[in-house]
Amino acid sequence: MPLLEIENLSVTFPSQTSDLYAVDGVSLTLERGDVLGIVGESGSGKSVAMLAVMGLVAFPGQVTADRLTFEGRDLLRLSDNERRALTGKDVAMIFQEPTTSLNPSFTIGYQLAETLILHEKMDRKAARRRTIELLDQVGIPAPEGRLDAYPHQLSGGMNQRVMIAMAIACNPKLLIADEPTTALDVTIQAQILDLLLSLQRDRGMALILITHNMGVVADTTARVAVMYAGQIMEERSTESLFGSPQHPYTAALLAARPEASDGGRLATIPGVVPGAYDRPRGCLFAPRCAYATPHAAECRPELRPWQNGLIRCHYPLGDTTRDERIAADRRAAPPAAAPEVA
Hints:
Layout: E1 4-13, E2 20-30, E3 35-39, H1 46-54, E4 62-64, E5 67-70, E6 73-74, H2 80-86, E7 91-94, H3 98-101, H4 108-120, H5 124-137, H6 143-146, H7 156-168, E8 174-178, H8 186-203, E9 206-211, H9 214-220, E10 223-228, E11 231-237, H10 238-243, H11 248-255, H12 294-298, E12 304-306, E13 309-311, H13 322-332
Parallel strand pairs: 3-9, 3-10, 7-8, 8-9
Antiparallel strand pairs: 1-2, 1-4, 1-5, 5-6, 10-11, 11-13, 12-13
Helix pairs in contact: 4-5, 5-7, 7-8
């Protein structure tokens, strides 16, 4: 039985005129011990998809799925008490900004102990001992002296380590890390990533790493899902994706990395991620894609198997007939209407 199964997950936010699809038909399977990276631009739906798994999508957001299970348990049918027992114990999440995730009114020691008392039923004395062990495990020096510190008294890197300690306190089977290094300098970023991978290996837990940094997933993950406008565009092994990207969006993301530059201007992707009012009828990436055709603009591709992975594209880059099919689809398109003359 897979650890996590997601099938056709959608998250919508209603408005007066139309629904905003933050997540649109996402399907993923995660086995025990897997390390999965989810990448894409801001607004691609990466964080919202995982918040739906955690049961943290706030009203008026609406979560639907054909299947959303953890160890076979239907996450959409859990009672509030069952959800609270699961979240923070078997499934934990490190949020993007530690200074807003930690409560400024309580000490670090109190917030860590609270997790242990709630889920592990420890008394205050045992929770204190375990809290000191956790802070030491995540690399915080003089951990006992930090118990009475408030979040504002610690650096961003220290607060992020506290968040990691809180997330692993109950030995979760799945850890979701949402942009865990965004607000940190480069040196601390490397330390945090090394820490997460070390904990994952030592504990055998599954790890989902959400990021927009392609370099991070290249160094840390075994498999990558590329998201755009709420949909998965490509999913395959990290080595295969970086060696031979098959979706034009994936290729554009890789080309936009600073290390891919030849010393001149960095490559960019024209346009922006579509919102509620400019969502294309067909392929969501078509307005920004150099290979788009009228057929792609009208017909939305499905996520399908391709070269030991999955892809959502009419014209994969590795398709030997791609150029011919693009040319044929462009020729078959009806001619554009002549502009009216006043």
